[in-house]
Specification:
Length: 72
């Protein structure tokens, strides 16, 4: 098997190692990084859409009320 390269210092890392033997930085796969970023993005999108829905739902259709009379 081929050795991996540390994303921090560029040292060869044995396959399956979670930390670089040279600098000690944790090694994560690109798939895990993309999956984590996608999860955060989806969660933020759900929160924003939920907030917009709540704001629009609470806004009254007629801010003055239904009994407004206009007198000349």
């Amino acid at each position: 098997m081929a050795n991996n390269i540390c994303s921090n210092c560029g040292t060869n890392i044995p396959p399956g190692s979670k930390k670089c033997p040279e600098c000690g930085s944790l090694q994560t796969s690109k798939f895990k990084m993309i999956l984590g970023a996608a999860t955060v993005l989806i969660a933020a999108l759900v929160i924003v859409i939920g907030a917009i829905f709540i704001i629009v739902k609470d806004e009254p259709a007629n801010p003055a009320g239904d009994t407004t009379e206009i007198t000349p």
